[in-house]
Amino acid sequence: MSEEPTAQSTDTQSNDETASVFLDGEFMNREDARVSAFDAAFQHGVGLFETLSATSTPDGIVVHDLDAHLDRLQASASKLGLSDEIKTGPLGEAITETVRRARYKNTRVRLTLTGGDLNLLQTHGRSNHRPTVLIAAQPATDYPDEMFEKGVMVTLGQARANPLDPTAGHKTLNYWWRLRELQDAATKGAGESIIFQVSNHLAGGCVSNLFVVDGGNLITPIAQGEEEELGGAQTREGTLPSPVLPGVTRMRVIEHAKEMGIKTTKRMMTIDDLLDADEVFLTNSSWGVLPVVKVEAETIGSGAPGDVTKKLRADILC
Prior knowledge:
Radius of gyration: 20 Å
CATH topology of the largest domain: D-amino Acid Aminotransferase, Chain A, domain 2
Shape: globular
Helix content: 25-40%
Number of domains: 2
Mean pLDDT: 89
Largest sheet: 9 strands, mixed
CATH architecture of the largest domain: Alpha-Beta Barrel
Number of helices: 11
């Protein structure tokens, strides 16, 4: 999951005022980007978003995991009735061109898709309307090295993710409750807050996916869309959907772990899985792999980033 609070970046933009925003087919400066007061995002919070990272290289622009982000957006837009007509090809081209025009070395890209002038009662939630498409590029967050070298402390959040919420497990604009938990965690000197499901099983971080290392292998909560794959007989009897976002970096970690001979188990997890773990780390598209060394007053493992976490972080950064 990831609409992450941003820190001051060391990247600077050229003195030339280049367009760093794409809005409904036009490139423009940030100051000129305006969305209607009657847009469904403003009126009702109807919308989806993706946060991506991009790098400018001598060979051109690299938008990391672009296809995976766009495929997830397209699937959510269709399933939630926002739009069945998302064209990932042109959208990907617009993202790359926005990054090129912004001219940062390392870029954080926010792609937002809203309901536009959408009346759900008239359209029955389907796609016969024009959504608002907004792409904004800014300097990538400059996280301190100490976060990754020493790891972070996390808190246990009070909010609960509800599997009966049909928007849960999708990257919707409803991030208020998550940001409130992050605010509370920050006042305690924590880097993230771990949230639970209403069943008291672990969901993950407010803006990240959760992994624990146990005996050299990985365990992670079941994500939205993986229930049938893992449910077996329980699925035939009817299981609850997962409110956990299927993170793009989470997927990459699982793939890299398999290549390294590290097994990943996806299952319902309890607080004991977290506190008794050898290692814990969090993933999202901004920080990649972030080691966790304390859960409030409880120390995880040795109290330092573990070998599996460090190997996976190094592999993801390659």
